[in-house]
Write a structure and sequence with these properties.
5 helices
């Protein structure tokens, strides 16, 4: 779940679990969340995934384990923008590698100045 939901969910479980032996673990520092939204989400995943992400497109509300840039990630449908979306939970120590693989597959390079959003980069062109 999103790190901002954790306190409320933990409080809810603490107040409603009476006899069950349940433990909640905070993995906030162990996972990084990415989100891809739009009709090209599936195509982008196909470019870097070792598995076929198509079942996710056909089955909203499902979770899948995909290998992206050699890293096992949890991928899930997240259609919060009114179009197909994919949420990715990535091990934090591998987040930069997965992010770079996504950018490269989409045709972008990390650490390149963007003249549209960076006035200093625009001045250098």
């Amino acid at each position: 779940m999103d790190r901002f939901d954790l306190p409320a969910v933990r409080d809810m479980y603490d107040s409603h679990l009476f006899a069950d032996d349940v433990t909640l673990e905070d993995w906030t520092d162990q996972r990084t969340a990415f989100a891809l939204h739009g009709p090209s989400s599936e195509a982008l995943l196909k470019l870097i995934s070792e598995e076929d992400p198509k079942p996710m497109a056909e089955m909203p509300g499902t979770h899948h384990v995909l290998t992206l840039a050699g890293v096992k990630v949890t991928a899930y449908r997240q259609d919060t923008c009114g179009v197909m979306g994919v949420g990715l939970w990535v091990p934090t120590e591998s987040a930069a590698d997965v992010y770079q693989a996504l950018l490269s597959a989409a045709g972008f390079e990390l650490d390149q100045p963007d003249a549209q959003t960076d006035p200093q980069a625009a001045a250098e062109f």
